[in-house]
Amino acid sequence: MAYRLGKNLRLLPMLRLFRPPVVLLLLLVVALLTACGSTSGSPAQKQLNLYAWSEYIPPKMLDEFTSKTGIKVNYDTFSSNEELLAKLQAGGKGYDLIIVSDYTVDILKKQQQLEALDPARLPNFKNIDSSFKNPPYDPGNRFTVPYQWGTVGLAVNTRKLQRPITRWADLWDPAFKGKVVLLDDEYEVLGMALQSLGYDKNTKDPSQLRAAQAKLLRLRPNIKLFDSDSPKTALLSGEAWLGMVWNGEAALAQREDPAIRYLCPQEGCGIWHDNWAIPKGASHKEAALAFINFSLSPEAGILITQAYPYSNPNRSALELLRRTEPKLYSAYMASPATNPDPAFLKRAQPVEDKGSETPLWDRTWTEVKGEGGS
Questions:
Q1: Does the annotation place 185 within a ligand binding site?
Q2: Helix runs in the chain, H state only
């Protein structure tokens, strides 16, 4: 409501003309109008502080949300779930909406750091495919709503490499000295080394972690860089010939260079699910709910897939994409980076919370990166 206190005060001289019951009624109306004006019109209610992965939220979607609602979005970025956790666990406040991955949801729920969502405020949740609802890390979607999902696999520039690359173990070939890019992600990289040794990607066995550490140290001469923000850049420039990438990065690389191939290695690959969530104590919870619902619309879903083609859980968005952009839809459906087949997914394993062994994993990763890490 657009009334302001200054305008309402003009009614006060007129109150003397009415009997007490009417005066009380009018005073109540004035109070209600004043209260409405002090909330919806407040500049503090017209902003949203978003914390998410870099190169992940389409600027066009942010602009359209602001145009539609008048809510300005302040977009701050992180490069790993561990960076997000460290910020929140250190008492970092001020964020109203975050992107959080599956295993990280478990951690934040245990720490009671997430706000429960109001389903009535999220009518577009109906657009999410049923297979992505009610996930094991958040039964009933009490705290999260799907944003995107995907895999972590091996990208190969087939223009540089004519021989078949099918395993993580191929990365250790001395012919690839200084030609490998890896994600700057401890759970995926250590997990890859464990898989290459035939171990569980999420092991809590110290001896197996030591073996993975030793194997990664032997890989060091081949590693050009660790990069979680844009690993495709090294592949497209030719600095790296192959390496571990997010599926969306592989899809973007393939748009620029069809010679980039993406696969799930024989030892197994990764799979992840990213979600919207509202941190406990968010100052602009209503704005956060409005943005989540906006992102779940088919039109916003298309913007997401156009800009950052990971895998989209929004069934209605993909159907709209099929009707309006058949060429992009066909490319999406044909690529294992965006639409992995059952055989690919059968070998995909998610990251799990390491619980009490988290410090051991952190220490192992620090030692790996400390050996001349980039």
A1: yes
A2: 5-8, 20-40, 59-69, 81-89, 102-110, 186-196, 206-219, 232-237, 247-256, 285-295, 298-307, 315-324, 326-334, 342-346, 358-370
Whether residue 186 is annotated as binding a ligand: the answer is yes
Query: Would you say 103 is a known binding-site residue?
Result: yes
DSSP letters, 210-256, are HHHHHHHHHHGGGEEEE-SS-THHHHHHTS-SEEEEEHHHHHHHHHH
- 150-271+344-370 CATH fold: D-Maltodextrin-Binding Protein; domain 2 (3.40.190)
Nearest to 279 by CA among 109, 72, 104, 97: 97
Secondary structure class of 164 (helix, strand, coil): coil
Residue 299 CA to residue 32 CA, distance in Å, equals: 37
Place of tokens 């705290």: 143
Share above pLDDT 70 across residues of the chain, in percent, rounded to a whole number:
87
What is the per-residue pLDDT for 258?
Answer: 95
Q: How confident is the model at residue 13 (pLDDT cuts 50, 70, 90)?
A: very low
Query: Annotation-wise, does 188 bind a ligand?
Result: yes
**What tokens does 366 get?**
């620090």
Are 84 and 114 in contact, with CB atoms under 8 Å apart? no
Q: Domain coordinates of the chain in residue numbers? A: 5-41, 46-149+274-312, 150-271+344-370
Domain 46-149+274-312 in this protein, CATH class: alpha beta
Find where tokens 């004035």 sit: 30
